[in-house]
């Protein structure tokens, strides 16, 4: 009764991607291939890290958790999108929509915290190499991951509880391929001021502050390298940080394009397309970035293939 009184809907209709009907088959195959590549590529990263003792270091510990998070993040939206494209249905239940919003927020925030932990690891490795093993201990690594999970799940829970209080009397059609929180706010007939303020405050804590920490870390790394400039030092810094910087650029670039660049209501397709980049393309590219630009990962892969 409480849910029916508050929401007044039992399901939502997802309009999906702006794709012509005759192109559905081609895009279904493309997105299915991308999703399978995301899952298999990140599982391979996790497997290599677990099997190769040389990769049992803090950086690869964080990378294994990032790979697992990327699998979960894509799995929140991609399977439902693919199923809707295959069956030509658009519906998602009210409970399913709320759950999807929760896990989307959870794993999106977790990505942000893990990337920040990896940036701190790189900062200590380059700026304080003699004290690296003392500072980046196993207990600190576990603590950072646990705190990341606690903060991410808490923030997502607050958003979801506030979202569940909203009424949806204007309709149940979402111009999206998943239950995007901002799209739900626009559809709601309730006052969303508290929700918007919560998004602003918690969003600053889980996105803006971690991004600032990453920038500060790389600012110190850049200053440390330039303090004693040498070709060898610059190459070592690029080798150590290049993969992580590429992933950070993809992740935060998509967030900035999606949430911080103003777009009119008439340009809804742009948000949907950028969301595909954020939820499917970025997690798919992460394993390629780390495998193609990381000698340790490529070495571990060669060893596994030889055995």
């Amino acid at each position: 009764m409480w849910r029916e009184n508050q929401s007044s809907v039992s399901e939502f209709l997802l309009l999906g991607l702006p794709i012509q009907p005759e192109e559905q088959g081609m895009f279904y195959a493309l997105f299915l291939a991308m999703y399978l590549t995301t899952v298999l590529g990140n599982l391979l990263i996790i497997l290599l890290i677990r099997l190769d003792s040389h990769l049992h270091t803090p950086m690869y510990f964080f990378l294994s958790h990032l790979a697992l998070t990327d699998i979960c993040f894509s799995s929140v939206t991609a399977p439902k999108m693919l199923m809707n494209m295959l069956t030509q249905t658009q519906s998602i239940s009210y409970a399913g929509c709320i759950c999807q919003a929760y896990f989307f927020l959870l794993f999106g925030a977790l990505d942000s915290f893990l990337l920040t932990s990896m940036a701190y690891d790189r900062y200590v490795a380059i700026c304080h190499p003699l004290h690296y093993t003392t500072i980046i201990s196993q207990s600190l690594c576990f603590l950072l991951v646990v705190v990341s999970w606690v903060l991410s799940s808490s923030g997502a829970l607050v958003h979801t509880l506030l979202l569940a209080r909203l009424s949806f009397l204007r309709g149940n059609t979402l111009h999206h391929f998943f239950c995007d929180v901002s799209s739900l706010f626009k559809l709601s007939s309730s006052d969303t001021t508290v929700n918007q303020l919560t998004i602003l405050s918690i969003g600053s804590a889980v996105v803006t502050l971690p991004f600032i920490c990453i920038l500060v870390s790389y600012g110190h790394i850049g200053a440390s390298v330039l303090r004693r400039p040498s070709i060898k030092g610059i190459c070592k810094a690029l080798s150590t940080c290049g993969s992580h910087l590429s992933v950070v650029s993809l992740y935060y670039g998509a967030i900035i394009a999606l949430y911080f660049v103003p777009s009119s209501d008439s340009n809804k397709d742009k948000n949907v397309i950028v969301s595909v980049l954020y939820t499917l393309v970025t997690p798919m590219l992460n394993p390629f970035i780390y495998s193609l630009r990381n000698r340790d990962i490529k070495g571990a892969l060669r060893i596994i293939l030889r055995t």
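Residues 1-7 have pLDDT under 50 and may be disordered. Residues 193-227 form the longest helix (35 residues).
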